[in-house]
Amino acid sequence: MKLDLDTSVVKTREERLGTIIGWKTGRASELSRDSVYTCSGCKSNGGKRLCENIGPFTQGSSCSERMVECQAGEVRDAILIQHAPIGCGTSQIACNSIYRNGLKNRKLPIENMKVINTNIKETDMVFGADKKLERSIEDAWERHHPKAIFIATSCATGIIGEDIDSVAMKMQKKFKIPVIPMYCEGFRSKHWSTGFDAVQHGILRQIVRKNPRKKQKDLVNVINLWGSDVFTPILSKLGLRVNYVVDMATVSDLEQLSEAAATVSFCHTLSSYLAAGLEQQFGVPEVKAPQPYGIAGTDAWIREIGRVTHREEKAEIYIEEEHRRIAAEIEKLRKSLKGKRGYAATGSAYSHGLIAVLKELGVEVDGSLVFHHDPSYDNNDPKKDSLKFVVDNYGDVPNFSVSNRQQYQFYSLLKNVSPDFIIIRHGGLAPLASHMGIPAVPLGDEHYAVGYQGIINLGEAILDILARKKFHQDLKKHVKLPYTRWWLQQKDPYILQKQGSFVENRSE
């Protein structure tokens, strides 16, 4: 589907990709098969439309506005205006901590993120807050002289219908810098990934250089979050330079996106919109390949980068060298991890990559949880089907689940599979696993498992936490979970979806 940059409002993932946030536990191959139907609308493959299971309440999640905050708010020489009640600014604390750690990992000057909240109140909900927004933009300019100003909407501004576009256009003319409206109200989309798309949509419309001064044939855009710099050592072997975006980039880095030779990422979920837009609007090819996880995925990824950038020979040399380098260490890790059962609980495409690495290490993966599922990605290409790739190359996952970070469901999911450890990135679920006696590998650095070295990194991290498993088992003995006896006895984590919010005999 061609992206529409004539409007400031991005289409949600539900509209574009058919994203769901709940699906019965089943085989990964079933979800992969039925996703093809949802994507193509064709019954010839024997699949059926995805049936979305959404519970009667939500215990834990995030929202699109927060994703905008942790992306646009972390462009180093720009400012983010949160046009929202002050409560929407509480996540600035967590985002700022992540930002500072990311800068340290990249060996960049450590600073705080720059975000201004307009502090919408009850009177503003009645009389409007456009003047507050104008004043906040003027304050941002006077205090920081940024090279761009992003405006994030909120549920409050969506409810009262604030005319953000008009204010942005007025202030852009006044200060002669991009002033970018991003429509990311929490209720606009079921899943927070639409927030990534809102930021990337704004960047494509108003920051990316429309008429590139020159094509930089050795520059590769890497769409990422806050992870350490693992792509430079990889791509430099092919004679390529890295342009990291969006987090911790500068406005200049964003401007030159249209000049790159190609675009890659560590995760199709994060990169889908921006990569497709750069290809469609500016002719920068997206590297359409499996994600760089495990040997099979990384091999295919490196070869496709080599093909797109005309460095096929260097790619083959690098692949051969890395295979020799890691062979003995991976075999050693396989022996140490033989018989262990792992469980990945992260965002969708990232979880698919982690499953590949676990199976590469000889770890049994009987179950996995993804927080949402995209039946397809922008630039709909079969080579980007990360779920099908892991099933075809590493085998099925019998207990594959989609649930939007719901703790009460996570308990049953883990109980039914009984893994030796879990891998997780997002907060809120690891403590529950620990209380069940299951240790967690917390991947705060999302690049930790990328590439050939990532297989070794993850294997060593798993051995490290398994050495501390007794602590979690002791914790289990002394902690009471905050659920009724009725719920602790349930085997079906989706029973409330089937029976509604009221279930007889559910009390103690």
Automatic annotation (TrEMBL):
Q: Which stretches make up the Nitrogenase/oxidoreductase component domain?
A: 72-465
> What InterPro entries does the database record attribute to this sequence?
Nase/OxRdtase_comp1, NifE-like
| Pfam families with a match to the protein in the record | Oxidored_nitro
**Name this protein carries in UniProt:** Nitrogenase component 1
Q: Give the organism, scientific name.
A: Clostridium moutaii
